[in-house]
Amino acid sequence: MTLKGAFFAASALVSVSATALTAEVLTIATVNNGDMIRMQGLTADFTEKTGHEVNWVTLEENVLRQRVTTDVTTKGGSFDIMTIGMYETPIWGANGWLVPLDDLSEGYDVDDILPAMRNGLSHDGTLYAAPFYGESSMIMYRTDLMEAAGLEMPDAPTWEFIREAAVAMTDRDAEINGICLRGKAGWGEGGALITVIANSFGARWFDENWTPQFDQPEWADALNFYVGLMNDAGPPGYATNGFNENLSLFQQGKCGMWIDATVAASFVTNPDDSTVADKVGFALAPNHEGVEKRANWLWAWALGIPAGTQKEAAAKEFIEWATSKDYIELVAANEGWANVPPGARTSLYENPEYQKVPFAQKTLDSILAADPNNPTVDPVPYVGVQFVAIPEYAGIATDVSQEFSAVYAGQQTVAEALEKAQALTIDAMEAAGY
């Protein structure tokens, strides 16, 4: 071996040894949806580039929320990275439970993150979680069934039109439900949907004095409408259906319409998974006639680092990899532009290749239609569209959603559920000092 060859061999050995000494095994808690599962399948690229390995803990949405909340509040140290959202991030950041992401590399380009997402994942101007993808809610519908019903979906329909179309598309003998909507208990499952429906009917969680509003007619109107719609045109057992259950029904051709997260658009149009991939159209989430607010929510599934981790540097490397422009290019190269994580970066919507994706513009329009600072018709003291950004909300809304799911299951009336919701929310808010 020449002297030069020996030098390069020694240099390579030093480099590998350094990598081995600094390599970590990161434990990441995440939700069991398609985009997160896709990310797990591409993790070898991260390991190849950094030497770090990843241990995934993949959980159903409600279970994920419970596990990561317990771990971060107790500094349990079970996870080095957590998949969290816009509700938790600012609250946990303010409490010092998350590592600030204020020193990400210049090449990462924080300023490229859509302002709605960056603002929702920050506290006092500091970013505490990076969005893997961003979403709102919109209508996904079967174009063939809509045509067969003799109807045409407007770009911005009303709930009244949705009801008419859902009934017209329902065919119980063929196991086709006119509409599939979340009914599953949980503040981020069925609770998120019924809250934005209520917003679109002019309801609100609290008035300007933090007085609960479930005893107001707008809530009764919204809940009665939802229950009537689902009883007439929804699937059996909708009280236990969440995102994944409705996705499966839609992909099997058993839903005429589905109103849910914009991120689902890539799944229902993927011919490898969806039997109706070539028959899907998109529209903005509905509003109630005479009410300006639409049933749009605003959310990001994001990656944050709990303050208790001993692997902060490696965790930041993973977050930069998973939420970067390069990761988007990686997914596009492997699975096509329709399957890249949407709603997080401005540059994605400026990309001519992505602009060809049929749901790209409707997703962006839906995100821009949601206003977390003015989520309701009447003024409110809180920020958040499908949630109220106070620490007590998760517990209260989980209990309220359970009362509503009991209505959907036929176990109590709308009036009974709203009376219980009002009472338990008053008690919880008084106990919290509001």
Explained architecture:
The protein has helices spanning 3-22, 34-41, 43-50, 61-74, 88-94, 115-120, 143-148, 159-169, 190-200, 217-233, 243-251, 265-268, 312-322, 325-335, 346-350, 352-355, 360-369, 393-408, 414-431; strands spanning 25-31, 53-59, 81-84, 122-123, 126-127, 130-135, 137-142, 257-261, 280-284, 299-304. By secondary structure, the protein is α+β, with helices and mostly antiparallel strands. It folds into 2 domains: 22-135 and 298-355, 3-Layer(aba) Sandwich (D-Maltodextrin-Binding Protein, domain 2); 137-297 and 374-431, Periplasmic binding protein-like II (D-Maltodextrin-Binding Protein, domain 2). It has a 5-stranded mixed β-sheet with strand order 2-1-3-10-6. Strands 8-7-9 form a 3-stranded antiparallel β-sheet. Strands 4-5 form a two-stranded antiparallel sheet. Strand 4 and strand 5 form a beta hairpin. The N and C termini lie far apart (77 Å). The model is unreliable at 1-20 (pLDDT under 50).
In CATH terms, what is the fold-level topology of the largest domain? D-Maltodextrin-Binding Protein, domain 2
Whole-number mean pLDDT = 94
CATH class placement of the largest domain = Alpha Beta
Fraction of residues in β-strands: 5-15%
Q: Outline the low-pLDDT stretches.
A: 1-20
Write down the Rg.
Answer: 23 Å
- Within CATH, the superfamily of the largest domain carries the name Periplasmic binding protein-like II
Main sheet characteristics: 5 strands, mixed
Number of domains: 2
In helices, the fraction of residues equals: 40-55%
Count of individual beta strands: 10
Shape: globular
Q: Give helix and strand order, one letter per element, not per position.
A: HEHHEHEHHEEEEHHHHHEHEEHHHHHHH
What would you call the structural class?
alpha+beta
CATH architecture of the largest domain: 3-Layer(aba) Sandwich
Number of helices: 19
User: N-to-C terminal Cα separation, in Å?
Assistant: 77 Å
